Each structure stands twice: as structure tokens, then as C-alpha cells.
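User: Could you go from structure to sequence for me? I need the amino acid at each position, not a summary. C-alpha cells:
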């Protein structure tokens, strides 16, 4: 597994190395996606402190994996920020054919209680 745990959106610059490989591969075009993706591990995205509702555009509940796939859809726009995010999305889809997502809510809402999390009984956790 390639494991990505985060509590916010990552900057596309953090995946520069992956981008370089993607660019070289795109130009050479010696292997198709199936061939190159076999050399990459499964991708697991852990999103902690998740506060959004997992629903689609119609308000129907979706799984964490469906949330990930929705997050990997390209955004519309023609500026540098949008292009950088779309490049990262393409790389994740290109290299990691087997991918999944898990979301975790913040264990407590009160910041003061969160500071003494180890001392609290599990019944206080969300």
C-alpha cells in the first residue's frame, strides 16, 4: 500500500517526483496504463477530522471510495492552480489503479478535551 494520511488538501508540489515520472512516461508512451500501474502499490487515502457529509449531487449517501473518486474528477478552469490540481488528480488515477479511501471524524469537538484525549474514557469519543 501507498498510504496518504492528511487532514487537509495537499499542494500539488508535494507530488513533483510522481509528476516527473508521469511526464516522461507520457512522452515515451512505451507502456500503457495497465502495464505501468502494475508496478505501483494500492493507494489508501486516510482523511482524518473529516467533517463533510458524504453525499452525491442528489443528496444520496456515498461510500468513502466514491468520495475519493469524486475528488479525483478534474476541475474546470484555466488557471495555474486548477491545472496543478488536475495534474495531481491525473497522476493519482494513472499510477494507482487500485485505490481506496477511509474517513475519520474528529474524536472530540471540544479543543480543550482533545488536548487530554488519552485521559478520557472511550464513551466520550464520537
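Assistant: Here is the amino acid at each position, in order:
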Amino acid at each position: 500500500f501507498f498510504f496518504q494520511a492528511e487532514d487537509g488538501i495537499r499542494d500539488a508540489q508535494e507530488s513533483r517526483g510522481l509528476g516527473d515520472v508521469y511526464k516522461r512516461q507520457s512522452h515515451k508512451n512505451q507502456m500503457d496504463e495497465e502495464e505501468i500501474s502494475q508496478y505501483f502499490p494500492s493507494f489508501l487515502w486516510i482523511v482524518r477530522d473529516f467533517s463533510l457529509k458524504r453525499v452525491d449531487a442528489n443528496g444520496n449517501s456515498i461510500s468513502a471510495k466514491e468520495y475519493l473518486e469524486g475528488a479525483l474528477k478534474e476541475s474546470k478552469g484555466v488557471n495555474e492552480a486548477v491545472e496543478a490540481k488536475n495534474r495531481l488528480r491525473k497522476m493519482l488515477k494513472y499510477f494507482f489503479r487500485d485505490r481506496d479511501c477511509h474517513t475519520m471524524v474528529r474524536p472530540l469537538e471540544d479543543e480543550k478535551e482533545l488536548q487530554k484525549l488519552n485521559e478520557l474514557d472511550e464513551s466520550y469519543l464520537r
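One structural detail worth keeping in mind: Helices lie at 16-28, 33-37, 64-71, 80-95, 111-115.
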